[in-house]
Here is the input.
Amino acid sequence: NIITFEDPIEYIHQHKLSNVNQRELGKDTDKNLSDVFDRVIKLDPDVLVITNLKDSFMMDTAVHAAHKGILVIAGINAIDVFSAIEQFVSSLSDDYKRALFPRSLLGVFAQRLVRSKSSRKRAIVMEGLLATPRIQKYIRDDKVYYVKGQAPSLRGDYFPIEEGIAQTIKDGRLDYESVKNEPWVNQDALKVLLER
Here is the structure.
């Protein structure tokens, strides 16, 4: 059983191997989100999708649901995985939720759409951070900045966006010209990955 809260609903999912109950925030829900989320969590869904965590209440709810064993997939506007974690943790309402968050976290992924100059199509590139015990400890100890500084030594825990770009270029879905002047790309790391 999958329940989504979207703002707005961009794609209608068909029921296949599970029921997908989509709700558009503000349109299909009451104005009082506290009551809405309380009722949804009592339904005990297997998966809860929140497309855009906008405030501390929604972030607290996501942590609460994950702590109850619900797989929570949530979106947050951030430039990379580290910024997403920092933004999420700083928005939680109390120390209890901050302590629960790292224990409930499975992974954080960031994505960007990049337009290929040669094909004029867009390709998605991703970076990921898996919530291994080492990463969870850094988050619990409020040392996310340390994780970012140690990124090169986090093989297996962290997959930088440059790895995603290099794979997308090797697959032919993107060309190097499209990203060579982007300020968010570590060009030295990308060149090393492309030479492998």
Notes: The helical segments are 33-42, 56-67, 81-91, 95-104, 133-140, 144-149, 161-170, 187-195.
